[in-house]
Design goal:
Length: about 375
């Protein structure tokens, strides 16, 4: 009897051991991988390159003074519209003391000469009226008097120009009034009342009084990488995206491609320019940073798959197509245009084919099974 119980106990122990071993084995056994599948779809493929840059006015002019001095008054501020000829500011001239002294001395001499010439003229005229002297003598005295009067006026004007920058006869055309040279918007007035300014000349660019630009004629200026420049040509359509303006795009046409590249950050970049087509009511501020999408190639309504599904073998491309439940076979395909996300399939697939994708996470499978 004891022997029977002993045998039963041994059997139970062996059974428990085997059961535990089997449980641990099945627990540690790796579940088979399960993959997602995707089918080809019909979409349009657009291959494009992106150029970074900014939007600026085509015509942006720096208004500079023609005389040196101090800003006496400013009539406009940034953001206001101006027409060509409108006065922006007025400059008060600070005369050079040497020139001022010479001008005052010239005026004094001219005054003395004029008074002396007048006395001689009055005397000669009286004698001529009494027929004491010939007409030629009278004419010489009159000419000297008129010449002295002209010199007096010139000396006075010269002094006025040195002191004030304007004469009494030309108050409206004085160089002390700084005028806009174009129609447009005042973008910046970098000076204030009281600032000293220098006139523009051969040796000095001069002080900028204001910056005026035509904001209705905007262009995009950017750069494209050397790897893409060979695919870009003038006349291409461009779509501008401006970070400061949400949910709005701007059309442009490429008008310029630089024949020479410059090195930036270890790569060769080529400058491009494009005319921005502003619709009615659209307004762009000068200097907005922008990205320009340039369409290089385009395919309409073609078979496409995600490029991530594609694999390569000896310079040939293939995908893995499901032939049975989670059983896949290699299928070589001919590919076409890619936009970096999707790629065109020319041959080798049908719209019913299921292509092996990424592996499904076991946790995700368990959650699906529970639901």
């Amino acid at each position: 009897m004891k022997r029977i119980f002993r045998i039963i106990g041994i059997v139970l122990l062996v059974g428990i051991f085997l059961g535990t071993f089997y449980f641990l084995y099945t627990k540690s056994k790796k579940a088979p991988d399960v993959f997602k599948t995707q089918t080809p779809v019909v979409e349009s493929i657009v291959k494009q390159t992106v150029a970074t840059g900014s939007v600026v006015p085509r015509q942006e002019i720096e208004i500079k003074p023609q005389v040196s001095g101090i800003i006496d008054e400013i009539y406009l501020q940034a953001g206001e519209m101006v027409n060509a000829g409108d006065v922006i500011a007025r400059v008060q001239i600070i005369p050079d003391m040497v020139n001022l002294n010479n001008a005052e001395s010239r005026l004094n001499r001219a005054q003395l000469n004029h008074e002396d010439a007048k006395i001689d003229y009055d005397r000669q005229k009286d004698l001529f009226d009494k027929e004491v002297i010939a007409y030629e003598e009278y004419q010489k005295a009159r000419l000297a008097f008129n010449t002295s009067r002209e010199e007096l006026t010139a000396a006075q004007n010269n002094l006025d120009l040195i002191k004030k920058g304007v004469t009494k006869a030309s108050e409206q055309s004085t160089n002390t009034l700084i005028r806009s040279t174009i129609n447009g918007m005042v973008l910046d007035v970098p000076v204030k009342v009281g600032n000293s300014v220098i006139q523009s000349n051969t040796f000095n660019a001069g002080t900028t009084i204001a910056v005026v630009a035509d904001m209705s004629d905007m262009i995009f200026e950017g750069k494209v990488d050397e790897t893409e420049v060979g695919k870009v040509r003038e006349g291409m359509d461009i779509v501008l995206t401006i970070g400061a303006i949400d949910n709005e795009k701007f059309d442009a046409i490429l008008t310029y491609l630089s024949p020479k590249g410059v090195e930036e950050n270890g790569a060769i970049q080529f400058e491009i320019k494009a005319d921005v087509n502003l619709k009615e009511g659209q307004f762009l501020r000068a200097g907005y940073s922008a990205n320009a999408s340039i369409v290089l190639e385009q395919r309409e309504n073609v078979m496409v798959i995600p490029e991530s599904l594609l694999k390569f073998e000896e310079e040939k491309s293939f995908v893995e197509v499901e032939v049975d439940s989670q059983v896949f076979e290699k299928r070589f395909v001919e590919i076409g245009l890619s936009d970096g996300i999707n790629i065109e399939v020319l041959e080798g697939l049908s719209f019913d084919d299921k292509i092996k994708g990424e592996k499904i996470d076991p946790k995700e499978l368990k959650e699906k099974a529970k639901s």
